[in-house]
Design goal:
Elements: H1 3-33, H2 37-41, H3 43-77, H4 86-109, H5 119-141
Length: 142
């Protein structure tokens, strides 16, 4: 498989994940939009669902960024790519600058595990829990 095909396949995978999240939120909105006259008359519930959909998309993008950072970190650790490469260095440092403010508080709470950093995993699990809580709150208010 050529590098272009690999990149296209990764792009398609990321897009599929985004579309699944959007469809899940739309399905939730459609299921509750027409369920009662109160939902049709009260625009706040529709706005809340739209807000939850936007938050879910942002969470999914954050999870994708975490996964990309993890994969690049593994490639660097196993010397598949080198930090002397300008592109790799720029991408990895940019991802670290984006994620370090989020991951550092988790790293302070977690015990030291040596070379393995579990804070991205904890963040992904926390984001999934937050998504489920948001959906349950949205369905209870309707």
């Amino acid at each position: 498989m050529s590098p272009v095909e690999k990149t296209a396949e990764r792009y398609c995978t990321l897009m599929d994940a985004c579309l699944k999240s959007i469809n899940r939120a739309r399905h939730l909105r459609l299921a509750h939009n027409g369920s009662s006259a109160r939902n049709r008359l009260n625009g706040v519930n529709t706005h809340m669902l739209l807000l939850i959909e936007i938050v879910q998309i942002l969470m999914n993008v954050l999870v994708m960024i975490i996964i990309v950072q993890f994969i690049i970190g593994l490639l660097i650790m196993f010397n598949v790519v080198s930090m002397s490469n300008q592109a790799v260095s720029t991408i990895y440092s940019s991802l670290n600058m984006l994620l370090d403010p989020i991951l550092n508080p988790i790293r302070k709470i977690m015990p030291d595990t040596g070379a393995i950093d579990f804070s991205p995993l904890v963040l992904i699990i926390g984001l999934n829990i937050l998504q489920r809580v948001l959906i349950s709150v949205a369905t209870q208010t309707m």
